[in-house]
Automatic annotation (TrEMBL):
Gene3D superfamilies to which the protein is assigned, alphabetical: MetI-like
Keyword entries, A-Z: Cell membrane, Membrane, Transmembrane, Transmembrane helix, Transport
Places the protein is found: Cell membrane
Coiled coil: none
TM segment ranges: 12-30, 67-93, 105-124, 136-159, 180-206, 239-260
Domain of life: Bacteria
Pfam family, one: BPD_transp_1
Record-stated family: Belongs to the binding-protein-dependent transport system permease family.
PANTHER family documented for this protein: ABC TRANSPORTER PERMEASE PROTEIN MG189-RELATED-RELATED, LACTOSE TRANSPORT SYSTEM PERMEASE PROTEIN LACG
Membrane topology annotation: Multi-pass membrane protein
Name by which UniProt lists this protein: Carbohydrate ABC transporter permease
Amino acid sequence: MKARTVARAGSNLTAYLVTLIFLIPVYILVNLSIRPAGDLTPGIIPSSHPTLDNFITAWTTSSLPSAIITSAVVTSISCILILVLATTAAYPLARSTSRLSNGTFYVFLIGLLLPFQLAMLPLYFQMRDLGLLGSIWSLVIIYAGTQLPFSIFLITTFLRTSVPLEYEEAARIDGCGNVATFWHVVVPLLRPVLGTCLILIGVGIWNDFFTPLIYLSGSHQVTIPMSIYQYVGQYVSNWPLIFASLIISMLPILVIYLVFQRYVIHGFAGGLKG
């Protein structure tokens, strides 16, 4: 009993230490965001004159408010489109046992291996020919194409391992057709993995800098990373404003994560087991 108590205390102590290590960057981020611009002391040292002026300046003197709206629109439309397409594609892949279905599933998995940079120039010329450069729709199309393989993989594996066929068979016995069974029986059971996809994909799109820099360059529309980048100069960077802007940009996605956090571990574990 004593050995078990010591082991439990050691595990708790280790967990607290690891948590402390992970909180150090958060502390530095907050500490630098409330520091006056002229304060050059190391970020680990508490600010002697904390101020909230950096948050006010970042919100009122930059494109951050409009950038948050643009990022929210792009992220929302992209995530909805990805989840709808991935769900409708994953269901027949998971339930069909034909060789064509398995081959198609592995073709989608190839998309996980190919880097986006391989298609960067062809996509740029394609968007230019379609007149979509400088438009958020170019980002939506690209995000949908690049994030579909991962979403299909996760949802298909979750369907195969965590959603029993008995529910669908019972619905068909009660008179439901294939479409009704899919939308009213299968989709509600996919909420854990859909929540997981929403968080993982949404955070990636929200924080992406490279793609908007290429396809929105020269337009009046900017996303959050592009808006924050205006404080980065060739020789001098305004770090207090950068960190204040980062904290402001974190709040919307943090709220969404807290709402869907109970789905993340369940859906991710269910999508990877088996």
